[in-house]
Amino acid sequence: MERIYNFSAGPSMLPLPVLEQAQKELTNYKNSGMSVMELSHRSGWFKEIIEGAEQGLRNLMKIPDNYRVLFLQGGASQQFSMVPMNLLGPSEKVDYVHTGSWSKKAMKEAEKFAEVNVIASSEDGNFTYIPEVTKNMIDEEASYVHITTNNTIEGTAFRNIPDTGDVPLVADMSSNILSEEVDVSKFGLIYAGAQKNIGPAGLTVVIIRDDLIGHADANVPAMLDYKTHSDAGSLYNTPPTFAIYMAKLVFEYIENLGGLKTMEKINREKAELLYETIENSDLFTSPVKKDSRSLMNIPFVSPSAQTDAEFLEEAQERGLETLKGHRSVGGMRASIYNAMPQEGVQALVRFMDEFEHHRNK
Ligand code: PLP
């Protein structure tokens, strides 16, 4: 069977050359006589893989030397708890920007440890825009400010990273990490589940500024303390070895493509093509405000649930898969992460045009 265009919000497509390389090396990695899955995480082979993965990410994101890169497990959801457990200062106050379902979950966990202040929210507009965040909104005593840079379900993204002054900025970058250039020095901590732009599910990447490590309470479990993993070079216990290997291949693939500058250019072209098609359509509309639109997750709706259902069924017949919108939003959602080829988006917009044309006959 041919590969399909998978518009899933995650886990999502991986670059085909990466899958092919993994396939080639699957049963015998570099003449070890073993699969990467069978290698000891203490072996020289794996040491080279994890160090290469870290260096690959550092090169791509131009991560400054005073930041550590951690390869963890537990998903972005575990970071919802680890962030307050590790970063909370004496005031026990934290500031959150509420932009959708994922920020809500992050806040719910933080409330178990901290006094959570919502300093800006787009709940009044059903999360169809990114609220403005200015320095004067931030409590100087807050331990950190938390944002979700890309809202996977709602299809919104911060176009400008807020300046939070001396208060560390923490970002859930799960659904747009590596999609565009980013100035890491603006953040105290960045976290992301791997399963969209990095690699297979099971790996969570944390990029943390040195000075934010080592402040967890003594009763925080070792596995939930950033210091444990930082001190051990992400080898305190058995890490998700195969996922880290795949991430390394993805980082190399993006680097060979031309790095994040090129990746961003391609992503902008893909997103523009889809947004333009929606704008020019008399059938489909975007629920998201123009200045807040995501390059990665693009929701669109037709006037009726019946039409949505017909569209989804016919799309599937053409190998355009997983276009159903999240149950909380409805309609359609095309997730066009890094590995979605331009041809995939072209095939989608061609089908959208045809579908609309056909109905008007
Ligand atoms: N945050 C965002 C923005 C997400 O898109 C997701 C998953 O889709 C999560 C957090 C949860 O990630 P995980 O499933 O890795 O816990």
From TrEMBL:
It comes from the Bacteria. Pathway: Amino-acid biosynthesis; L-serine biosynthesis; L-serine from 3-phospho-D-glycerate: step 2/3. L-glutamate binds at residue 42. The modification N6-(pyridoxal phosphate)lysine is found at residue 196. PROSITE patterns: AA_TRANSFER_CLASS_5. Pyridoxal 5'-phosphate binds at residues 76-77, 102, 152, 172, 195, 237-238. Residues 4-348 form the Aminotransferase class V domain. Its cofactor is pyridoxal 5'-phosphate. SUPFAM superfamilies: PLP-dependent transferases. Keywords: Amino-acid biosynthesis, Aminotransferase, Cytoplasm, Pyridoxal phosphate, Serine biosynthesis, Transferase. Coiled coil: none annotated. It is found in: Cytoplasm. It catalyses: O-phospho-L-serine + 2-oxoglutarate = 3-phosphooxypyruvate + L-glutamate; 4-(phosphooxy)-L-threonine + 2-oxoglutarate = (R)-3-hydroxy-2-oxo-4-phosphooxybutanoate + L-glutamate. It is an enzyme of class 2 (transferase). One of its GO terms (molecular function) is transaminase activity. Binds 1 pyridoxal phosphate per subunit. PANTHER family: PHOSPHOSERINE AMINOTRANSFERASE. Belongs to the class-V pyridoxal-phosphate-dependent aminotransferase family. SerC subfamily. Homodimer. Catalyzes the reversible conversion of 3-phosphohydroxypyruvate to phosphoserine and of 3-hydroxy-2-oxo-4-phosphonooxybutanoate to phosphohydroxythreonine. This is Phosphoserine aminotransferase. It comes from Salimicrobium album. The gene is serC.
